[in-house]
Design a protein that fits this description.
There is one protein chain. By secondary structure, the chain is mainly α. The protein is built from 13 helices and no strands. The protein has helices at 10-35, 39-52, 59-73, 77-90, 97-111, 115-127, 134-148, 151-164, 171-184, 188-201, 208-221, 225-236, 242-260. Helix 2 packs antiparallel against helix 3 (59-73) and helix 11 packs antiparallel against helix 12.
Length: 262
């Protein structure tokens, strides 16, 4: 009687079982090599699992482990990208797929400083249906443009974050980075106004010292030496880097004295 249940020949079942055993054996060997700090051998053994047993449920994990070893232990970011990209390509819905894409984006941004490629991968992560930290990826996109020196595009991307994710916990830092973009572009009026709004809304913000210091620098640029001195003296009360502030105060006093002696 045909029950509709698909039956596999006994030989096939034994073959699959034997392959799984051999994959497990190789994985155990790879883990042992890793514990012995034999990183090259461990990575190669993990790769053997993925190459010899591509349909084994542990093939994706083996590839992921090889990628992490290449990146974190062997400082071989290009090789790591190769392994992570294979995961994304061959296991697009796998358990390590999202983390693999995050690694790729981070490697391009921080190790290879290929910011254009990093942006592409962060955008991919935003488009995925199974990612939760989309505001973080958008922040990373803006940061890439900042690192690239394209400050106006960075501002645009930071503003996109505030528009798309208005409840994000990254909003204070996003506003801070927008102000910093204006600062590095020597747009002191916009920078100071942005810093002031930031402190008004978040008076205890963790970057308060840096905000005040940058505001003081802008006041110097505008030759508003009185306000700059006021800021630096206020910072002297809580700063651990008093040497820098003393130098700034001394430089301003010297400029003021030169003006008086003209």
């Amino acid at each position: 009687m045909n029950t509709g249940v698909k039956r596999f020949p006994l030989a096939v079942v034994f073959l699959l079982f034997a392959c799984a055993q051999r994959a497990d054996s190789l994985l155990q060997k790879a883990e042992t090599l890793l514990l012995q700090n034999r990183y090259h051998e461990a990575a190669e053994t993990f790769l053997q699992v993925a190459e010899r047993y591509p349909f084994d449920p542990q093939a994706e994990t083996a590839l992921f482990r090889a990628g992490e070893i290449s990146l974190l232990e062997l400082s071989e970011p290009e090789k790591a990208i190769t392994h992570f990209e294979k995961i994304v390509r061959e296991f697009p819905q796998g358990e390590h797929s999202v983390k693999a894409e995050e690694y790729i984006a981070s490697i391009y941004e921080n190790s290879l400083r290929d910011f254009d490629s990093a942006v592409i991968w962060y955008q991919r992560l935003i488009r995925r249906d199974d990612t939760q930290e989309k505001d973080g990826y958008q922040f990373s996109i803006a940061r890439c443009f900042y690192k690239k020196g394209d400050y106006m595009q960075a501002i645009t991307e930071y503003r996109n974050l505030m528009k798309q994710f208005p409840e994000s916990g990254l909003i204070p830092e996003t506003k801070y980075q927008i102000a910093n973009c204006y600062f590095v572009m020597d747009k002191c009026d916009e920078a100071v106004a942005s810093y002031r709004r930031l402190l008004d809304k978040y008076p205890d913000i963790e970057w308060r010292y840096d905000i005040m210091l940058s505001t003081g620098v802008c006041m110097e640029e505008k030759e508003n030496y009185g306000k700059a001195l006021e800021i630096y003296r206020e910072l002297m009360e809580t700063s651990t880097d008093k040497k820098l502030l003393r130098e700034k105060i001394a430089a301003i006093n010297e400029r003021i004295n030169k003006r008086k002696n003209r």
